[in-house]
Design a protein that fits this description.
Number of domains of chain B: 1
Radius of gyration of chain B: 21 Å
CATH class of the largest domain in chain A: Mainly Alpha
Low-confidence stretches of chain B: 1-23
Oligomer: heterodimer
Distance between the termini of chain B: 60 Å
Order of helices and strands of chain B: HEHEEEEEEHEEEEHEEEEEHH
Structural class of chain A: alpha+beta
Strand order of the largest sheet of chain A: 2-5-1-6
Shape of chain B: globular
Helix content of chain B: 10-25%
Number of strands of chain A: 18
Helix content of chain A: 55-70%
CATH topology of chain B: outer membrane lipoprotein receptor (LolB), chain A
Mean pLDDT of chain B: 80
Mean pLDDT of chain A: 84
Low-confidence stretches of chain A: none
Strand content of chain B: 35-45%
Number of helices of chain B: 6
Radius of gyration of chain A: 38 Å
Number of domains of chain A: 4
CATH topology of the largest domain in chain A: Multidrug efflux transporter AcrB transmembrane fold
Number of strands of chain B: 16
Chain lengths: ~900, ~300
């Protein structure tokens, strides 16, 4: 069937081309519906229970979608500069999508001086005199609620905090807001030493911009790398063009599919074109190499091209299906991730891999039928002894021949070392960490953090059952105690709560310069609270004072550390809050960080599932669990090394790097499949399976090394991505591809040659003339699979000349098939022995006992050294109960044998 | 009803605003904004002693409301000095919180705040501007105590008409500051039929409308004099609004004795309470109370 599918494009060019064209056109229409989603929301598990609490807290205390406009100037507190600042403030307030602007011109302060209480805005409007400006500066810097949040210690930096309305980002909302703010900033750019904005709209807009840039760069770069590497290694233009064509069609189909099903592109999607080009090309390369080999083998035949395509289909068809399947499985293992970003990427990549396999099967033969020559024009031959693959293989062969055990031991030691290194791995999922550290956005974040509190926010929410709970001093103290613990953790920049407001106003009223203290009575708190406008407290306490909120700003980018601190905080917070209150720590940023933990668990699960599937597939392929285990070796070694390197180089697990393992295994296993498939095939024609290992390695080394290097180069292209996570993914995947060469061609052959991988069928295929099996009446009219299955349940027994195989009068239910040698059937009657028959290879004896438990009617004696297959009745019944067709065939053949024997006996008695 | 000296007539209580009858006879096209406001004053014929009981309802952007109850005392002396006291009665936690304002004969105003829970001392309040919120409301102290005509300059704009009612429209500027004079503070819409200010736009320093004040439920309280029983202040920017509803109004010397405007009177009637250890609501054993109530019922 696979061969027929592969020949479809060759034989039915017009219908196949029309079909491809039609689907491609549909895909192009689908592409027009494509959407881009770089929102933070896709990083949060959809089923995260914290979402509900987060939304409740946001509804109560206002959005955490806040942009900080950072303004630095040594002469900030002068009328001229403040006038520009006021104009900027005014302009931003008018911007559509801006719900609130907090800054120098909207902040109120309360100041106790000389027994008076002064309650006024820091600045109502731009001052006219320097004195007025300096007075405002003094007032602003004296307010501890604003220091670090709105003003730097020296007063040279101020921040404008712009709250953005919550809106769906699919209509480019973030980008529009970012651009609008940027336009306002640009008007005043020359007026200040430095002015910039940082916040979710900018992050989102830059993610989107970087995504577009990646699309423009990575795909074409991968294509160039692909063409060059194929030209270098295969020296065939057609071999370079074919994967390019299949890749382009696959890219169109994939994005069309995404458009039709409504899955948006995300930052991981940037690497899909590269992945399609790179991974897809390996199959094309294997197919083209087989086609060229086919041309060589059929060069003397008429229509060599058609024969070569058939040869290609026959030899690469099954491995192609398996490799497409395992590669797709690698990507599909993330399908059930609860993180939208990964799930969407996984759907896209899985579809792409499957589509690429399908397209390759149709397009490649079609192109060969039009463009290929009848002669192998490729200049590359395996005989090039100084080629990179050959030189590498010479080293490997030397190690395999001379120090196989040492090589294995060293590999094991290396793996142990890297397992230890991998134990240092940590997870991070901070959107800011997706950008390269030299990007202006990241520099701006650092700059803000140098002068003010970090741009990241989370909320600590405490809830009582009773209204006005947070007018009670004891409960206000709880807020204060939690903040004290936050301070003791020493990792957050700033926290503000209702307690700070009350301590501050208490200090200003007392006007005594005493330590900040919480007002002593409920009434005093209530009376102080009258001095705040409700909107001043919106972020810190609910309307009925039953819920309070501590706003924490920080700049922690490492999810692992942040999650650890948050866990500590949660414990303390619950203890302080007491049993009468519920408490939560929420923010979008934290949910994204929590997702990092589930990311780790999900990847471990995906890895286990994938390894299990590969094990099962390979076990089925070899009808041997050993085969499955050996196939895992070249998968496990590279990922062990990869995780070790991540630990050693302090590369975190993130949505990009976490996927490397499963994707790389899915791809690396392709080489293993080709290697083992070839070995499997060779085993049928040689009795020397070590030679089979060597031959398989020798034959597959070049395509395996070439495709792995090409894959490494292709993945290496991703290093040029704007996103750190994509670049890290590329670098690690490239390294894993190179490690897989070492694992596939150095370690796997050593293990293959030491462990008898082949099953009974292979041994038989090696040592027994196939005609014996073909001619045996027991195996008549059975397919290869049915024969193989039946034989695998039997046992191979060896007997020396003269050995008694079956004893007359004994009771036994075994049936025997002679593989080699001869045996004589001897019946003893009244002390006289009589030879009934000489049994030749392929013939069966013991079938009567097999059918019915009865005494053996004659002896069977080996007259040569004899090999037989012994079929145990009980085992056959048990093992074949799920294969009724095989049982039926076997029973029919046994009936045939018995019938034949009866006919012989009748004929013999007639003759007598 | 007494006629007040000039000094006292300049103290206009916004919430009582102004009224007049047959105002057209006194206002022509050439009449200036200042003259219209003076005419409004004359028509107003302010009572010197006013006692009001008010409910204040404050609604935030989520539609959630806070209610306070307060007593308002105002007294204009013969020499022109004015005393004003706003005294909160409800909720019980803020009972006794007071704003005490005094404008002397020279036009100098002093404001004090009394917080019974803080201690028996008046704290001078400074720095409140015309646009600053007072004690969490959308009103400023100036909105509550009154607009002084002599401190302002009124520029008449083209008359307008809304919903069939004709208005004189006056822009209000600060009189003593040349620079500020150009900065509009408020825009009054004076009903032409009764010279009552029913709509005022309050502007921020950037010349934008920051709050809108409207007067409702107008009642003729004595002859030509009208009063609004409801005043609504809306802050569009903060999506917040405050409504003052006058539930009782008495024009009587007896209700506004001079000692009301003294610290001593406040200390005596709303004394400071020493802090005591109080359980939080969470710590109160409500079940025990319920049991006690149940027992009492039985």
């Amino acid at each position: 069937m696979i061969v027929q599918a592969c020949m479809l494009g060759y034989k039915r060019r017009v219908p196949v081309a029309a079909f491809l064209l039609m689907v491609t056109l549909l895909a192009v229409i689908g592409m027009l519906r494509l959407q881009v989603d770089t929102g933070i929301d896709s990083l949060i598990p959809a089923d995260d229970p914290a979402r509900v609490i987060y939304q409740k807290v946001m509804g109560e205390f206002g959005t955490d979608n806040k942009t900080i406009i950072y303004i630095k100037d040594e002469n900030l507190w002068t009328p001229e500069k403040l006038l520009h600042l006021e104009q900027l403030h005014l302009a931003i307030e008018k911007t559509q999508g801006v719900s609130r602007v907090d800054g120098i011109f909207s902040l109120h302060t309360i100041h106790g001086v000389d027994g008076k209480i002064v309650s006024r805005p820091v600045l109502r409007s731009a001052p006219k005199t320097v004195e007025e400006a300096l007075s405002a500066k003094e007032s602003a810097l004296a307010n501890p609620l604003y220091l670090g949040n709105f003003f730097s210690e020296d007063g040279n930096v101020t921040a404008m905090i712009v709250s953005i309305v919550d809106a769906d980002d699919r209509n480019n909302f973030s980008r529009e807001i970012y651009q609008a703010l940027e336009d306002h900033i640009n008007v005043h750019l020359s007026e200040f030493e430095y002015i910039t904005q940082v916040g979710p709209p900018r992050i989102n807009a830059e993610l989107k911009q970087s995504l577009y840039e990646d699309f423009m760069l990575l795909g074409p770069l991968s294509a160039v790398i692909l063409v060059l590497s194929i030209l270098i290694f295969m020296r065939s233009w057609l071999s370079a063009i074919v994967p390019l064509v299949t890749s382009i069609i696959t890219i169109i189909w994939t994005f069309g599919f995404l458009g039709w099903v409504g899955i948006p592109l995300n930052i991981l999607s940037a690497m899909i074109p590269s992945l399609i080009i790179v991974i897809g090309s390996t199959e094309d390369t294997h197919l083209m190499a087989a086609f060229l080999r086919g041309l060589d083998e059929n060069k003397d035949q008429a229509d060599a091209r058609k024969h070569a395509v058939k040869y290609m289909a026959k030899h690469i068809g099954l491995p192609l299906v398996l490799t497409v399947l395992t590669t797709a499985l690698g990507f599909a293992s993330n399908l059930f991730s609860n993180i939208g970003l990964i799930q969407h990427f996984s759907i896209a990549a899985t579809f792409a891999m499957l589509a690429n396999g399908f397209i390759t099967v149709l397009v490649l033969p079609l192109m060969l039928s039009i463009f290929a020559s009848d002669k192998n024009t490729s200049l590359v031959k395996d005989k090039e002894t100084n080629s990179v693959p050959n030189r590498l293989m010479r080293i490997f062969r030397y190690s395999q021949d001379h120090f196989p055990l040492s090589t294995l031991m060293m590999t094991a030691a290396l793996c142990l070392f890297f397992v230890f290194q991998a134990s240092k791995l940590y997870v991070t999922n901070d959107p800011l960490s997706y950008f390269q550290s030299d990007r202006p956005l990241i520099q701006d974040v650092k700059r803000i953090h140098e002068d003010l509190a970090g741009v990241k926010i989370f909320f600590i929410s405490l809830e009582s059952k009773h209204a006005k709970a947070f007018q009670e001093p004891k409960n206000i103290k709880k807020l204060s105690d939690i903040q004290d613990f936050l301070d003791s953790q020493g990792v957050y920049d700033r926290s503000i709560s209702l307690a700070d407001h009350l301590k501050f106003i208490n200090r200003e009223f007392r006007n005594s310069g005493i330590e900040d203290s919480i007002p002593e009575t409920r009434k005093l708190i209530a009376q102080y609270l009258m001095f705040f406008h409700r909107s001043d407290l919106d972020s810190y306490v609910s309307h009925d004072y039953s819920r309070a909120n501590i706003v924490v700003r920080h700049n922690i980018t490492d999810s692992h550390s942040l999650n650890k601190y948050i866990r500590e905080l949660e414990d303390v917070m619950k203890e302080i809050a007491g049993s009468h209150m519920t408490s939560h720590i929420v923010s979008e940023n934290l949910m994204v960080n929590h997702a990092a933990e589930s990311l780790m668990v999900a990847q471990v699960k995906a890895l286990v599932i994938l390894l299990t599937l590969i094990f099962l597939i390979m076990s089925a392929m070899f009808t041997s669990f050993k085969g499955g285990l050996i196939a895992l070796v070249p998968a496990i070694i590279p990922i062990t090394l990869m995780f070790g390197i991540m630990g050693y180089l302090d590369i975190p697990l993130n949505p990009g790097t976490a996927m490397v393992a499963v994707i790389a295994i899915g791809i690396a296993i392709d080489g293993t499949i080709h290697l083992l498939a070839r070995y499997n095939e060779l085993c049928r024609y040689t009795s020397d399976y070590i030679e089979a290992v060597n031959t398989a390695v020798r034959e597959e080394a070049t395509p395996l090394i070439v495709s792995s290097i090409a894959l490494a180069l292709g993945f290496g292209v991703l290093i040029f991505s704007n996103f750190t996570i994509v670049a890290q993914f590329g670098a690690l995947a490239a390294a894993t591809m190179l490690f897989s060469i070492f694992a596939n061609l150095l370690i796997t052959p050593i293990i293959m040659s030491r462990i008898r991988l082949v099953g009974l069928y292979q041994i038989l295929a090696m040592s027994v003339d196939r005609d014996v099996l073909d001619g045996s009446p027991l195996l008549q009219n059975m397919t290869d699979y049915q024969r193989r299955k039946a034989i695998l349940i039997s046992e191979l027994n060896e007997f020396k000349k003269g050995d008694l195989l079956v004893e007359q009068g004994s009771i036994g239910r075994d049936m025997y098939l002679i593989l080699s040698g001869k045996a004589e059937v001897v019946r003893k009657d009244d002390g006289e022995s009589r030879s009934l028959a000489i049994l030749m290879p392929g013939q069966v004896f013991g079938e009567i006992g097999y059918i019915r438990e009865t005494e053996r009617t004659a002896d069977v004696v080996a007259i040569d050294d004899v090999s037989v297959l012994r079929f145990d009745y009980e085992r056959m019944q048990d093992d074949l109960k799920f294969f009724p067709n095989i049982v039926a065939k076997l029973n029919f053949n046994i009936c045939y044998i018995l019938g034949q024997r009866l006919a012989d006996m009748v004929a013999s008695s007639k003759n007598k | 009803m007494k006629s007040l000296p000039y000094k006292s007539t300049v103290f206009v209580l916004l919430i009582s605003c102004l009224l007049a009858q047959e105002s057209f006879a006194y206002v022509s096209k050439e009449t200036s904004g200042d003259e219209i406001m003076e005419e409004v004053q004359k028509r107003h014929q302010q009572f010197p002693y006013i006692y009001e009981e008010q409910s204040m309802v404050m609604e935030d952007r989520h539609g959630k409301r806070d209610t306070r109850k307060a007593k308002r005392y105002s007294r204009v002396e013969k020499d022109g000095s004015v005393d004003f006291l706003l005294l909160f009665e409800y909720p019980r936690e803020v009972k006794g919180v007071a704003l005490l304002a005094n404008r002397d004969v020279d036009g100098n105003t002093k404001k004090y705040i009394y917080l019974p829970a803080f201690g028996e001392q008046l704290i001078e309040s400074a720095g409140e501007g015309s646009n600053d919120n007072f004690l969490g409301t959308d009103f400023s102290v100036e909105n509550l105590t009154g607009e002084v005509l002599s401190d302002h300059y009124y520029e008449r704009r083209d008359d307008g008409e809304m919903e069939g009612i004709k208005y004189f429209i006056l822009d209000v500027y600060r009189a003593d500051d040349e620079f500020e004079k150009k900065q509009i503070l408020r825009k009054h819409f004076v009903q032409q039929d009764n010279l009552y200010i029913t709509l005022t736009y309050h502007y921020d320093k950037r010349g934008r409308i920051s709050r809108t004040q409207t007067h409702h439920n107008l009642k003729a309280v004595d002859g030509d004099m009208w009063r609004a029983n409801m005043i609504l202040m809306e802050d569009k920017k903060l999506q917040h609004q405050s409504l003052i509803k006058i539930t009782r109004r008495v024009f009587s010397h007896d209700y506004v004795p001079a000692e009301v405007f003294t610290a001593q009177w406040l200390y005596e009637h709303y004394p400071y309470e020493e802090p005591v250890e109080e359980p939080t609501m969470d710590e109160v054993d409500f079940e025990m109370f319920e049991d006690m109530i149940e027992e009492a019922r039985e």
